[in-house]
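Escalated from tier 1: nicotinamide-adenine-dinucleotide holo job.
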Amino acid sequence: MNGLLAGKVIIVTGAGGGIGKASALLFALEGASVVATGRTDETVAEVADEIRKAGGKCIGLRVDVAVGADCGLMVETAVKSFGRLDGAFNNAGIDGPIAPAADYPEAAFDEVIAINLKGIWNCMRFQIPAMLATGGGAIVNNASALSEVGQFGMVGYCASKAGVLGLTRAAALDYGAQGVRVNALSPGVVETPMMTSQMNSYPDLRGMLLARHPIGRLGAPEELAEAAAWMLSDRSKFMLGANVSVDGGYAAF
Ligand SMILES: NC(=O)c1ccc[n+]([C@@H]2O[C@H](COP(=O)([O-])OP(=O)(O)OC[C@H]3O[C@@H](n4cnc5c(N)ncnc54)[C@H](O)[C@@H]3O)[C@@H](O)[C@H]2O)c1
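Tier 2 regenerated the structure:
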């Protein structure tokens, strides 16, 4: 590893599995001190342990991004443990149920918005002041290829991810000149626990999704981690308010 993130302190949300776990591991191997957060104590402890065993610096913390106080504590813990905050990959998210828009359950709609959309704002409203205190930083919000197109039965998810782009662009304008860069990453379909469980529930889904990826395959969590690492590094320092598609051609289709 070449130390792309050497010396940086970076938070990852939803680091218990999938894209978040692969990212926490890569960031640590690239030299960052990582605060790996997720919904359960056991999962984040396991991930942090795995990263330390691989030679990285990491602490695990239980954080529900839908809860503002949890996000405040997350940033406080990063600063107390490592002295500063340079980067954040706001990745935690859920897919929600599949149902036509008018039948979509109200409680599920509220939950998807609370985690996928308000959760990102909850993270940023504590991360940004911490970054400003030491001269700036970089935030990557995990959106989706579905942030710019619709998908049958996914009104909650599509609305939340389109909203992530709005939050990202507005915050980028608010803080770009002060050195905090906010950008969004939009993955295509990636083989993670979230997608595997969806593909297991709907037998035709894998084939349908593959057909939407001109590259001819689905993504791997590590491929998204690579993009996020670059977006959090100083090598992307002119990038502000962008939506970066890493999706095997999904958005180009
Ligand atoms: N896998 C894909 O195909 C795909 C495609 C586009 C976008 N994404 C986005 O990537 C992100 C990661 O997804 P993934 O596929 O790795 O899924 P995943 O289910 O493997 O990981 C999501 C993680 O977020 C955590 N999480 C859920 N709710 C949370 C909450 N309230 N607080 C804190 N953590 C919470 C989960 O526990 C889990 O560890 C999500 O935002 C998802 O929408 C995934």
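The CA atoms of residues 2 and 30 lie 6 Å apart.
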